[in-house]
Amino acid sequence: MDKLLQPTPFPEEMDLGYLGRIRQINGYRYDHLLWRAIAVQVGSGKGATKHELLSKMAGQTSEQFARNHTSIPFRRAITQNYPHIAHGSLQMRTLLFGRTPHRGDLQVFFCEKCVKEDVDFHGVSYWRRDHQMPGQTWCPKHALPLHFARSKDSFGAFPKDRLGQSQMHDATFVSEARGNLFVQRYLELATAMYDRTAPLDSRSVGPILKGRAEKLGLVKTQRVRSKHPIDDRVQNVFPAHWLSVVLGGKMAPSGVPFHTTASVASHLLVIAVLFENADEAINALANAAVSGRHGPADLSDKVNPLSASAFSPP
Q1: How far apart are CA 311 and CA 218, in angstroms?
Q2: CA dist 246 to 215, 239, 261, 264, Å?
Q3: pTM
């Protein structure tokens, strides 16, 4: 078996995009054959995860690769499932499974100007992780609406090759989102999650959010079957179209489904309305993580700290 060409990942290159680039430059058509070749090249045993194989191809530790090139720091940003396990740690290999944050059905995002600059500088375009973040509908560098494409193998081609098959976010929609202070706060919080080496424990975060909600008067005074005041607050301050994009277009009949899911995006939307700015929120949550460390949580425990009961009086 010929030795594979082993490219260095570009800054913030998405893991699946890096895999697609390895496949293209080595002329592989089928992923299962490529994975077999990668395993042989990096000398990994039978039990190695695909994440481990890619990290070795990149010349990085599993934890480095997770923090620099995957969605793991976002997907596990706030959790009660093994929050003491660092992102990318090999202590719990099951946490290395999964792909990108939910951005709709197999959609990938890119900036047309970034594509041109990457081709001019690197000779090739690549998939940037920050463009895939839920709610990031414009390029942070160029402030242009992102293009998006839909395919079963979206990361398998270079962004340049998707230009003719892509659509672009509506400029008016993007302008409305960019000018919204709460959207900006949400994105600052989301970006900060990528800087963390380990998740925040939702069992420590919950009491902090409950206290903030009580301080702002965003609590139910009676046990009635109606939307929680935080639902109303979120729907009132965030642009409706942008909110739908963040949540993958899945809106509950009564509004935003904060109380039926424990998604990271939902947590961050709530945090964005409970704090005056992102720095205040990040500091409060980080302090809670240090002072309220819990042991390992049972994966079967599905209690959501943002559920209606968490904010309602006893």
Answers
A1: 8
A2: 27, 11, 14, 11
A3: 0.85
